[in-house]
Amino acid sequence: MHKKYRHLSRDERGKIMYLSMWGKKASQIAVLLGRHKSTISRELCRNVSPYWDHYTDESAQLKADRRRKQASQRYRLKNERIRSYVERKLEDGWSPEIIAGRIKLDLPGCTISHEAIYQYVYHLDKPERDKYIGYLRRSHRRRRKRGTGKAQRKSRIPNRISIDNRPVAVERRRQFGHWEGDSLVSSRNSVALYSLVERKTRLLQLERVRRRDSKRTARAVIKRLGPLMRTPMAASVGTSPRAPILLN
């Protein structure tokens, strides 16, 4: 297993300065500090003070801090062709996910991930950042960290039986009379379609529901399955907390 790299500390840089002034070589300093020889050699080469013409810990620390800051602000999408394509498609209303999937067809040989596009947008300087954030479907001024969304709601149905526990005959579609119900909900209003699918025959029943609540959903199910209820039937429902439990 590879060891995790540790940046040189201010104290270590002070020791490097004094040891180098005493004539110690990079390999000797590396042994004394418990560091790799290449780490010390690189430190001595790129952090020479422009004023004193030799290594100083203060100058080295300032340069290291500047490099670390610039690394966190590194400009994304350096490829001009890809950047122009991404910006144009964002202005056309495309999501980063669609752009990432389509660019391979429109620009053969070019690839970009949707995550890189989000990083590019959220690291632009104002007013460009606000402009392109406005093109995103979810125009958050600050991007949420992964895994910090709303927790999944728990079902409110008491004594609920998981769909994973249904009999093998039902799972393999061997018996007629087992129905699956689900709501198709519009994001703009409360109107919904309630769908019922018989597992064996794939028979589909649809009923429009003005409001997605348990009473209206139950009436829709009774209306659609009433004529077919001569034999015992069962229905498995989705994860919606408002979905009714249907028994034989």
Distance from first to last alpha carbon: 59 Å
Helicity, in percent?
A: 40-55%
Give the total of beta strands. Answer: 4
Order of helices and strands: HHHHHHHHHEEEHE
- Biggest pleated-sheet summary: 4 strands, mixed
Pfam families: HTH_38
Protein name: Transposase IS30-like HTH domain-containing protein
Keywords: DNA recombination
InterPro entries: IS30-like_HTH, Transposase-Integrase, Transposase_IS30-like
Question: Would you mind describing this structure in some detail?
Answer:
- By secondary structure, the chain is α+β, with helices and mostly antiparallel strands.
- It folds into three domains: 10-72, no CATH class; 80-135; 167-236.
- Helices cover 41% and strands 10% of the residues.
- The chain contains ten helices and four strands.
- The protein has helices at 10-21, 26-33, 37-46, 57-72, 80-91, 96-106, 114-122, 128-135, 168-171, 214-225, and strands at residues 178-185, 192-198, 204-209, 234-236.
- The protein has a four-stranded mixed beta sheet, with helices on one face.
- Helix 1 crosses helix 4 (57-72).
Q: In a few lines, what is going on in this structure?
A:
The chain is an alpha+beta fold and 248 residues long.
